[in-house]
């Protein structure tokens, strides 16, 4: 049979008919559409087994336990709070929740780099091996030491309460330099105040979980004053009402209607920067109405006291009664006398009253005399007695380190240059140090290690900080990211991020419990990185005696194990679990030890739990001659403050000097931090950028917030463009009208306006600290951010 | 006459050719094509749901505190009972020696893995019977073979969008795009 053209056509027609009646064309069409979902360049989450691992979050040092979800135990995809830690109890802040995004961020540094062109030129960074990088650094350090200039090496770290900071201190002690600083913190002034009154240099701590009524002077507890997730949980507890426990009332004193003020029972709006005057006015009424703690008369300096010449001087009681009558305080603060009396009676009627204070959101320390006022108010309430609400921050037991101290050739630079405060190097006076470097006072700084800090972004007085960095011969940045400071560095040593590394938290300033936690790596380090601790140990090894003798560990993990051994050796404390409740923990609580030894402790802490111990009584910290707190510090007199002007010995209110030129700069600019944005070392992760209100940032435009009355006077409307000017510079902004800001004030959120990282972070909004200045406290020499005179001009 | 016979014969040839093409295409479309399209995979360990029927389902498949669902239990679940061998089956030997003792997660193959552009959460569907979407495993001794589409990479049993839409429509749930495609 011959198959002709017609038969072939019939075969094809049959084939087509059969194909159409089969699933082939339809299924294939559908599958091809789905296949396009799997093109290799389309971002797709890794598939595989999903399992969780616990660890401690150290993104911000608040010691939250977290669970990290991993795919195939390699790829981190999700971070959530764990409930085995009573501090956060399942909560986690925006930074912790974004931890995964930092691991896979495109701006991570992948290997050591060296600047080969002019400083600040991003194209000049060339890869360098670890051996060469550390070798070159060790050679510089060795040369300086040989020439007797070891003191010309400095370190600035972003974290204080970690063993890495202890290693830096030990390294510098053995090397022969006193120049170790940390980035500014709200509690930086506490050691000075605590030393003056109590003879201890520990930061204050507060029993905020058990207070029945809290009077907060600018302590923005909902926006970064203290550990964020912990305070979120404490806030929920304040609201609880059950038999025997009424809701905790909070009164927030601040000039701006902050997040803390909105969550408080009452917001007391005072004139900007006058919170301390109100504290002293309240002290006056407490004394006048004899509502003071009855043991107060035993405190030195409450009644009359004697100076070095043996002359009788008026005490705190007489000083406050004379200087701060409610009528005067009403004039300073803008409140009525009856309101001040009402607040006082509310405070003293509380069974467990507590006074807390802070920076009003700027994140900087407070003035020395203002902090004295808040502490004095707590003393009048008996809060530093054994059942009181105030104590001091305890640091977890440390391992003993070999004594390899080399006397520095010169004291710390700010002390040498005469720019430090009267407490000298007890205080972390970073701004005077940088000022001395910038003005070439004292001696030069040849090498500056910047460990996980970004001073060129987060410090105010930008010109001075930039000038100081320009004077340093070699800047070594230990960082995970190409941030503003890394760009200006000469050598970059990349360090792993949180989920890839060991780390620890040894204390929480403001929290009375002793805690210790370690963060263990849950995924492998992605690039060619070394932990800061390992860098210190390896540099010590290359430098040789006595530095290597001072740091006898091979790797950072061994250092943490040594610290755990020291903790285990005390035989104290316990490991947290889901039932641990810090509110039930008081100084005379007995804790059942639930770990066997250091190995067991290591195993348990590696899985995200924390070690804790009972809070220590305030009296255990007091080392004054009388063993009691005092209102008058002989230390101040010894340092040359004379009793001619009594207020120099007393808590008193000082007006913040924001600049005299109120004609050209009629407004007061205040930058403030919020808990959902990072304004210090780390940038904002994509998740955080999504959470920004559209009245803080739209596209690339940052906003200033002003009162509608101010806007009316200046002719601005919602969203209009403006030029924000201060004596430090100007920035183009948009205007947001809000009654949360008092007339005459202009506020801006901190954490925006980066010049580094990627296109989603850089050049978005305004870096407010580029326009603001710090005022140097005359006693502590700490940089205080209170406000800067500014003007808003039409574009 | 001869011309008429030749024409009839030619028609038969065309019909036969048509039928050959038709049947051949049907065979290719219904039999050959699926065999070519899907690759065959077996689970790394045979898990008998029947053997474990004494346990409640939520012993292994439960909602975590954050709302995610333990569709594929963690190896720690297995370890609770199988730290050591309980029986003598080959499947249990593999489980204990190759996974539990080595603390290695079992690379289970998923029958219903949804595409990445689908946001599916079990929590809002918790009141619906499992078997509305999943096979009934209560009497299952052996895990079924997993057929993976070579073109798409998804399992043959991955539920299609029409099923979701149908059920949403029946129950009055929204069928708006953003409900499932975030």
Characterize the structure shown.
Chain A is an alpha/beta fold and 795 residues long. Chain A has 26 helices and 31 strands. In chain A, the strands form eight sheets. A seven-stranded mixed β-sheet of chain A has the order 5-4-18-17-16-6-7, with helices on one face. The radius of gyration of chain B is 25 Å and the shape is extended. Helix content of chain B is 38%, strand content 4%. In chain B, helix 2 packs across helix 3 (90-100). Chain B is built from five helices and two strands. Chain A binds chain B through residues 1, 3-4, 6-19, 21-24, 27-28, 31-32, 34-35, 37-38, 44-45, 47-52, 72-73, 80, 83, 90, and chain B through 9-10, 13-26, 28-30, 33-34, 37, 65-66, 72, 74-75, 105-108, 113, 115-117, 149, 151-154.
Task: Provide key terms for this protein.
heterodimer, A: 795 residues, alpha/beta, 7-stranded mixed sheet, 6-stranded mixed barrel, 26 helices, 31 strands, 30% helix, 18% strand, globular, B: 182 residues, mainly alpha, two-stranded antiparallel sheet, 5 helices, extended
Can I get a quick summary?
The complex is a heterodimer of chains A (795) and B (182). Chain A is α/β, with parallel strands linked by helices and 795 residues long. Chain A starts with a helix and ends with a strand.
The helix count of chain B comes to 5
Largest sheet of chain A: 7 strands, mixed
Structural class of the secondary structure composition of chain B?
Answer: mainly alpha
Strand order of the largest sheet of chain B: 1-2
Q: What is the quaternary state of this protein? A: heterodimer
> In what range is the share of β-strand residues of chain A?
15-25%
Radius of gyration of chain A: 29 Å
Report the strand count of chain A.
31
How many strand segments of chain B?
2
Mean pLDDT across all amino acids of chain A: 94
- Percent of residues in helices of chain A comes to 25-40%
SSE string of chain B: HEHHEHH
User: Any idea what the radius of gyration of chain B is?
Assistant: 25 Å
